[in-house]
Amino acid sequence: MRIVFFIGLLMLFASSASYAQTDPLLVDPILVRLKARLVSAADSTAIPYANIVNNRNRSGTITNNDGYFTLDVLNIDSLIVTSVGYQKKVVYIPHNYMGYETLTFTMNPVSYAVREVEVQGEKPKVAGDLGTGKPVDIPVELRGDAFNERPPIIAALFNPISYWNYYLSGREREKRDVREAIALQNYWEMHSQNYNKEIVMKLTGMKEAAADSFMLWFNAQNILPYTSSEYEVRASIKYYFEKYKEELMQ
Hints:
The chain has 250 residues and is an alpha+beta fold. The chain contains seven helices and seven strands. The protein folds into three domains: 26-107, Carboxypeptidase-like, regulatory domain (Immunoglobulin-like, Sandwich), CATH 2.60.40.1120; 140-189, no CATH class; 195-249, no CATH class.
């Protein structure tokens, strides 16, 4: 009986200790520097430029080109992770995490169900007396109704319909808007590699909350084009950080 009682006590203590480790209310909050990587659950490839937001204080960051990110958190925090093409996910910081290793979080890609489409039709017949046609010598940029760039005035002499279609056609304006949006997205992706919170904190020595405030002020100045080089970004951050400190002192 004593042996059974002793074993029961051991099991009770073990379950209590396990419960204390898993229940957030019984864990002492500790500030740690989270180092983690975000990958796809489908093929383990990195997920770049994903948004990471802390549920507790709404601070956040984004993953770099290789899916890595760092963030100051408590060991009881949870993070909201979102990325285009993936399902929204909430991840929890392990209570025993001390910031020594790099954690890996996975996201599930969004699956779109597309019903089967059956295409029917007949191959058009070519009249036997028309031949196969001859190649033309008209430059590519003067053919049809599409110009990738603004057509020169001389194009109005060779192909006036396409020339005026560039300015008057809604379809052509829509294609130019799409190309502009694609270029803007590419600029943002390149820009985020040179300008992000980690770089600001490294160059200014500020903590995360202060860096957020400075970046809001810095962005409002509208002085940093998307095409800025890494050197231009770093020089601008250092220069305007001094201006920012002067404003705070006034």
